[in-house]
Structure formats: C-alpha cells, structure tokens
Amino acid sequence: MTASPEAVELAKVAAAAAADKKAVDIVALDVSDQLALTDCFVLASAANERQVQAIVDEVEEKLRERGSKPTRREGDNDNGWVLLDFNDIVVHVMHTEQRGFYGLDRLWKDCPAIEVPDPQADPDGTA
Questions:
Q1: Do residues 40 and 7 lie in contact, with contact meaning Cβ atoms separated by under 8 Å?
Q2: CA-CA distance, 91 to 82, in Å (whole number)?
C-alpha cells in the first residue's frame, strides 16, 4: 500500500509552507505501509521557538487553504516540538536539537521518501 495521491500532495504543500518560513532539513515520508493511522509524515526543523511557531502557522494556513484543518495539535513551540495531525498527513515541526535527540528520521528510515522542494536550492533548481 502506498500513500494516496491526495496525501502526497498535502505533504508537498506542507513542506513548501515550511520552506517558506525557512525550515531546514525538510523530509516527507510515505509511512502508509508501517502505520494504519496516516499516510505521510513531514518533518521540519527550526533554529528557535519563534521559528517553530512561524512554521506551524504557515503550514496550518496553507493546508487550510486546501480545505484541510488539523484534527489534533500536540505540543507547543516552547517545548520545541509541535505535531499537527491532518489525518492523511502528520507534520512534525521541531527545534533542531529536539529532532536530533528523538531521531524520528532514524525511526522511519525504511519508509520511502517523498520528493519535496529543497529550500536551499535557487529558484532555478540549482543548489
């Protein structure tokens, strides 16, 4: 089983929204074979708590424009990790140190990656 096209598209929108607010190390994963609860994870890191909040706000706004509202929100920017559950996708916005500590990338390393825009690339697609 693979992620639905709608979930993949939402993951790409969430990743682009995070990139717009200068998130780093953005990764989207198809976790549908491993989890029955959701199709995709989007992981994004931020340098500080204010940036975590800015990224969360932008992701919520861009997905709301597409007709998706989070059904659940866990954590807060003061804790350095916010989880947004949109049913088909789950977005994790983490302080860089929290991401390294919890190692979600390592936990889900066997899941296929979903190609998302590289925020460090120039608009013409070069690094």
A1: yes
A2: 8
Distance CA 46, CA 54 (A): 9
pLDDT tier at 36, thresholds 50, 70, 90 = confident
pLDDT of residue 80: 87
Tokens 């993949």, residue located? 8
* DSSP conformation letters of the chain: ----HHHHHHHHHHHHHHHHTT-EEEEEEE-TTT-SS-SEEEEEEESSHHHHHHHHHHHHHHHHHTT---SEEEEEGGGTEEEEE-SSEEEEEEEHHHHHHH-HHHHTTTSPEE----TTS-TTS--
In this predicted model, what pLDDT tens digit does every residue of 57-115 receive, in sequence order?
A: 999 999 999 999 999 999 987 788 999 999 999 999 999 999 999 999 999 999 999 99
**CA atoms of 84 and 106, how far apart (whole Å):** 20
Q: In 3D, which of 98, 99, 90 has the Cα closest to residue 71?
A: 90
Tokens representing residue 68 in the block: 């998706």
